[in-house]
Specification:
Strand content: under 5%
Order of helices and strands: HHHHHHHHH
Structural class: mainly alpha
Distance between the termini: 46 Å
Largest sheet: none
Helix content: over 70%
Radius of gyration: 30 Å
Number of helices: 9
Length: 223
């Protein structure tokens, strides 16, 4: 059975979760001896600090999102380069044959910008194959082997980029899921530690109890 993608359990951003875990640590250090009988041992506090530090070293979710945007922009640039090379050749063919004619359509490429990535690759492959086959017929209107070779080069770069993009997307997705799982575990620790501290101070010191509210921003808004 395929594992389901993790769902974030924390009610705020990952950056806010990390900051809240940092903010809680001084109160835990101060109250360590008082909370030890309630299960908040020094080892548990040390683990919480270590996990908080590790979480801070991970790339945040905003970085992952920006990487996705960058990959999309790079893909658009590579695709445009291939489309441009193909349109140059199709323009030469169209100067001799009507785009609605069978002679033009035998090159197998039309509406380039509307093609899927897979169809664009196949269209470029067909265009160079037919271009070389009928090169003598269009040499007089400007078609050259160099133009067809340029399509081959751009097509190869396009295919290589698509493969690299799939690998990068898979890696990025795995990192994002791992970060969410780690954040969920850190959030559970936060909730448990806050519950212990808040319960200890609730009836004796409201200010110290407030230091153990999981999400102070929500508590302040509610108040």
């Amino acid at each position: 059975m395929l594992a389901k993608d993790p769902i974030a359990e924390y009610p705020f951003s990952q950056a806010a979760l990390w900051q809240r875990c940092l903010d809680l640590q001084p109160a835990l250090d101060r109250d360590a001896a008082l909370l030890a009988p309630r299960g908040v041992t020094p080892a548990r506090i040390a683990q919480f600090k270590a996990d908080t530090a590790e979480f801070g070293d991970m790339d945040p979710d905003t970085v992952m999102q920006q990487q996705g945007v960058t990959v999309t922009e790079d893909k658009d640039a590579v695709r445009i380069a291939l489309e441009t090379a193909m349109q140059q050749v199709l323009g030469i063919i169209a100067s001799q044959d009507d785009p609605r004619s069978a002679r033009y359509k035998r090159f197998g490429a039309s509406s380039i910008t509307a093609m899927s990535d897979a169809k664009l690759h196949l269209g470029a492959t067909m265009l160079t194959k037919q271009g070389r086959r009928y090169l003598p017929e269009y040499a007089g209107v400007g078609l050259t082997e160099a133009m067809l070779a340029a399509i081959d080069a751009q097509n190869a770069a396009f295919v290589e980029f698509l493969a690299d993009r799939r690998e990068a997307e898979s890696t990025r997705a795995g990192a994002t899921q791992a970060r969410i799982r780690f954040a969920n575990g850190l959030y559970r620790q936060l909730v448990q530690l806050c519950a212990a501290g808040e319960a200890y101070w609730r009836l004796t010191d409201a200010a110290k109890a407030a230091e153990y509210v999981v999400n102070p921003g929500v508590a302040a808004d509610a108040a």
